[in-house]
Structure formats: C-alpha cells, structure tokens
Amino acid sequence: MEFQDNEAIYLQIAGYVSENILLAKWPVEDKIPSVRDLAVELQVNPNTVMRTYEFLQNQQVIYNKRGIGYFVAPGADQKVKQYRRERFLQQDLPRFFKTISLLEIDLEELRQRYEQFKLAQLGLAKS
After folding, report:
1. Cβ neighbours, 10 Å, residue 64
2. Per the database record, which ranges form the HTH gntR-type domain (predicted)?
3. Average pLDDT, the chain
4. Measured between alpha carbons, how far is 125 from 122 in angstroms, rounded to an integer?
5. Cα–Cα separations (whole angstroms), residue 43 to 8, 38, 48, 75, 99
6. What's the average model confidence in pLDDT over 106-124?
7. What are phi and psi of 88, to 5 degrees?
8. Which phi and psi angles does 47 have, rounded to 5°?
9. Which of 2, 52, 60, 72 is 20 to 30 A away from residue 113, measured at CA?
10. Kindly report the CA angle at 82 between 2 and 92, in degrees rounded to 5?
11. pLDDT interval class at 125 (50, 70, 90)
C-alpha cells in the first residue's frame, strides 16, 4: 500500500479495511487480520494499525472478541458507505468541482466517461 502525505496513515488504513468490507473480501461476522498481521502486510507500525482498529471500532464497523480478534460488525457496509459518502461530499467533491471547472470539462463529457467506467467495471466483475 502506498501512503499519501495529505492524510493520516491510520485513516488511509481505515480506508483499506473499509474497501475490503465493501468489496465483501471481509464479510460480516468474519475475522479480519490481526493487528500484527495487518501491520506486517502493510509495512507499518502495529500501533498505527491499533489506532485504525480503535477508530473503526468507534465507528461500529468492527468489533473485538476478547482473546480472539477483530470481526466485521453487522451493518458495517452501510456504516462504511455512510461515512465515506459524507467524507466524499464534503472533502473530495469540492476539489473535483474546482478541477473540472479549471480544466473546463463539461458535464456531458463527464457523464459519457462515467458510463464508460461503469461498463468497464461490469466487465471486470463478470470476469
């Protein structure tokens, strides 16, 4: 995983965990990688992963079974979508609008490219 400078690493890892939940790689009630395993996989300090897990636990996306590990909470996908949607609408969308305005990209071109993107994603999902 390549980390960006514009966001705390623990939040970027939370995004990685959330994406795995949304893609159903980590289904509801499934055990997720341990703090140590995820730290090794992502090449980060275990304390950073622990901070990520605490953040996601506070968001009710994951929960801890003492002595067993962390698991995906029921309804986690909806909580992740809600959180990411709000974040996108408040942070990313204004930057996106500024960029398309500066580059004078019209909405019709965006619509066409978005339709192409969706078709390509459907093709990937089927393969």
Report:
1. 12
2. 7-75
3. 93
4. 5
5. 15, 8, 10, 29, 33
6. 89
7. -60, -50
8. -65, -30
9. 2
10. 50
11. low
Q: What 3-state DSSP class applies to 70? A: strand
Q: Indicate the residue type of 23.
A: L
Secondary structure element (H or E) that encloses residue 35, with its range: helix 35-42
70, 32 Cβ separation under 8 angstroms? yes
Reported pTM: 0.79
Q: Give the position of tokens 């996306």.
A: 61
CB–CB of 63/53 below 8 Å? no
Q: Which residues contact 56 (CB under 8 A, 6 or more apart)?
A: 14, 17, 18, 62
